[in-house]
């Protein structure tokens, strides 16, 4: 039988059983529902394969020209729609509508949807640097994440490392200030935490420093700390308000500690606790009476009665204070001397 030579761009169903297409011509006999076609060194410019006319297609050439759409079956995780001859359970499949999956060895490794990328294996990137982070953004290539050191992740903006997460904790590279704290809140950028200096942690509210803690655990409210003061209150417009309790509330304190000070709202008098609660009060017959038992002894440090000082026990220190205040007096128990600071020097009183 003479060879049939249909020309054109379409191979339709029920035309050729075993066909070789060369240089735009089809050679072979006509048969129904063909099952195999071989295109060798194909030069078909615009093929149109319709109605399952070709079930197995072999391309010996390296190029297919002008093919706008290539469709394959959805496949599955074990039989991907697009796979490899020597590795049929590795390739691309459709896990669900509008999702693309990549499977390796019949196991889904990566799935891409319209809203996310889900990975089921470890992702590894290059080490990167501050100006070229490993993971960055198309329109902001010097902002992202990189491997700052062994066991350390660095976070970069504008080629500058701002934060590092390592095996010991989280490290910040931005000290901040009272007006621009390094840690702040969305919509309230001048309220947060900043570093007030070396070994100093500070809090700010509304762009004004509210509190700071130094390396000696001294606390300063509204400003700086003082070396020998555990608490410094810095203000020129406000007063210090003690806890206000009734007598019943005061006595309900389970284990009062020596040195506690409260304002008694029942008697309108300051109360001080040593071995028991005492009053710091002024009356007509007793203009001012102060009883402080700092050493838990019955002897008062200071006692005023009937407008005269009856007894005074000055503060006892084994060493002179590091930063004395002008007018401060104390008794040095080491050299057995009474001393006072006049604002410039420590003066021995006797």
Task: Write up this protein.
This protein has about 350 residues and is mainly beta. It has 6 domains: about 10-60, no CATH class; about 80-120, no CATH class; about 135-170, no CATH class; about 185-235, no CATH class; about 245-315, no CATH class; about 315-350, no CATH class. The protein contains 1 helix and 32 strands. The strands form 8 sheets. It has a 6-stranded mixed beta sheet, with no helix packed on it. Strands 7-8-9-10-11 form a 5-stranded antiparallel beta sheet, with no helix packed on it. A 5-stranded antiparallel beta sheet has the order 12-13-14-15-16, with no helix packed on it. Strand 18 (about 190-195) and strand 19 (about 200-205) form a beta hairpin. The longest helix is centred in the C-terminal third of the chain and has 5 residues, at about 245-250. It starts with 9 loop residues before the first strand and ends with a strand.
> Total helix count?
1
Number of domains: 6
Arithmetic mean of pLDDT: 78
Shape estimate: elongated
Provide a compact summary of the structure.
By secondary structure, the protein is an all-beta fold. It has 1 helix and 32 strands. It folds into 6 domains: 50 residues, no CATH class; 38 residues, no CATH class; 37 residues, no CATH class; 51 residues, no CATH class; 70 residues, no CATH class; 32 residues, no CATH class.
